[in-house]
């Protein structure tokens, strides 16, 4: 046999169903990771403890192996990013954790059975085995059922709730009491719809606009800090931009205390902070975010947001992420099932 003709050099094509299964699996796994990260961060300060008991060895060996090859390491820093799909579901379905995640899933007995099928489908495509003819249909049906739950999570994490009375928002009450000391040049919109105005001499012409929102879980208990998140969004009315690189560098000391830094459209920045830190610490963290935003708004440094060069960790969400875009008017599907 000769190998002269190109027709004899053939490659086994990737089944189109496998490509689609991989895309759907990627979306599901990254959303599950996001759910676990946000809800555990909002529920407790030792948020990794409920994860550790479901992982053999902590941090996961895959994290250590990835970072050992430092010449090709990715920006992922959290051990959570290295959990397997099965470990993620074990964390979610744990009886102690399930109340945090129940609003986003079908009833647990139904979800457990269906996730077993999803695990099998996911493992087939991850290990390059031929999919079953119905795998894509099964996974698509599960994701269609998940769409509403993930939208509820997006709403929970991005759409502020108005407190009924000051007792429901103790952090903002304490912030108002300290405003003369920490509000220089800053005008802040509070969750109750009132404003904290910039102290003189910037009362009429603030250097920074800030918007503070109260983000609550479906099981929110009035006045409780548990499972509650504060989201603070800042913008610069005079300069029109905030130096995101400068903000990131100035706030490194509090990055372990926050959930995300969100790089929003229109040159805005947002930070989410879990209220389980307690009232006094929350006020300190909000003050740090405001101060860094103000400094960055006044910065003359025009550093570009080169995503590849900066290699920022996964807790920085870029403007194309659904959680930076989602709002009450958002009608676009959260999941792409094409």
What structural keywords apply?
2 domains, 13 helices, Yope Regulator, Chain: A, single chain, 7 strands, seven-stranded mixed beta sheet, alpha/beta, 338 residues
Can you walk through the features of this model?
The chain has 338 residues and is an alpha/beta fold. The protein folds into 2 domains: 16-158, no CATH class; 166-305, Yope Regulator, Chain: A. It has 13 helices and 7 strands. The chain has helices spanning 16-43, 49-52, 61-68, 85-93, 98-101, 108-126, 135-158, 170-177, 179-182, 244-250, 279-297, 307-310, 322-325, and strands at 186-189, 195-196, 208-215, 229-235, 260-263, 269-274, 316-317. The protein has a 7-stranded mixed beta sheet with strand order 2-1-3-4-6-5-7. The longest helix has 28 residues, at 16-43. The two termini are 43 Å apart.
Secondary-structure blueprint:
Blueprint: H1 16-43, H2 49-52, H3 61-68, H4 85-93, H5 98-101, H6 108-126, H7 135-158, H8 170-177, H9 179-182, E1 186-189, E2 195-196, E3 208-215, E4 229-235, H10 244-250, E5 260-263, E6 269-274, H11 279-297, H12 307-310, E7 316-317, H13 322-325
Parallel strand pairs: 1-3, 5-7
Antiparallel strand pairs: 1-2, 3-4, 4-6, 5-6
Tally of separate helices? 13
Strands, total number: 7
- Our Rg estimate from Cα atoms comes to 23 Å
The amount of helix comes to 40-55%
Structural class by secondary-structure content: alpha/beta
Task: Note the gap between the termini.
Answer: 43 Å
Shape: globular
pLDDT averaged residue by residue:
90
> What amount of the residues lies in strands?
5-15%
Written as H for each helix and E for each strand, in order along the chain, the element string is HHHHHHHHHEEEEHEEHHEH
Strand order of the largest sheet: 2-1-3-4-6-5-7
How many domain regions?
2
Low-confidence stretches: none
Please outline the major beta sheet: 7 strands, mixed
């Amino acid at each position: 046999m000769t190998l002269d003709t190109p027709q004899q050099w053939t490659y086994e094509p990737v089944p189109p169903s496998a490509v689609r299964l991989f895309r759907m699996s990627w979306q599901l796994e990254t959303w599950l990771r996001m759910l676990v990260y946000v809800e555990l961060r909002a529920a407790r300060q030792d948020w990794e403890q409920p994860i550790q008991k479901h992982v053999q060895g902590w941090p996961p060996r895959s994290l250590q192996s990835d970072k050992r090859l430092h010449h090709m390491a990715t920006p992922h820093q959290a051990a959570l990013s290295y959990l397997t799909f099965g470990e993620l579901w074990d964390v979610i379905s744990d009886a102690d954790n399930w109340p945090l995640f129940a609003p986003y899933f079908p009833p647990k007995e139904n979800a457990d059975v269906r996730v077993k099928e999803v695990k099998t489908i996911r493992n087939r495509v991850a290990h390059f085995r031929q999919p079953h003819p119905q795998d894509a249909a099964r996974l698509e049906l599960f994701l269609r059922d998940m769409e509403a739950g993930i939208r509820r999570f997006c709403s929970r994490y991005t759409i502020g709730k108005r407190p009924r009375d000051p007792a429901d928002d103790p952090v903002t009450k304490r912030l108002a009491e300290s405003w003369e000391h920490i509000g220089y040049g800053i005008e802040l919109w509070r969750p109750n719809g009132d404003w904290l105005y910039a102290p003189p001499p910037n009362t009429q012409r603030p250097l920074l606009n800030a918007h503070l929102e109260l983000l609550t879980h479906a099981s929110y208990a009035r006045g409780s800090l548990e499972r509650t998140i504060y989201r603070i969004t800042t913008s610069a009315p005079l300069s029109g931009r905030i130096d995101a690189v400068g903000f990131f560098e100035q706030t490194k000391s509090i990055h372990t205390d926050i959930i995300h830094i969100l790089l929003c459209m229109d040159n805005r920045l947002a930070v989410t902070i879990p209220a389980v830190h307690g009232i006094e610490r929350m006020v300190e963290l909000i003050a740090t975010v405001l101060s860094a935003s103000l400094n960055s708004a006044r910065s003359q440094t025009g550093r570009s947001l080169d995503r590849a060069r900066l290699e920022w960790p996964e807790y920085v969400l870029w403007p194309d992420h659904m959680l930076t875009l989602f709002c009450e008017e958002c009608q676009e599907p959260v999941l792409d099932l094409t």
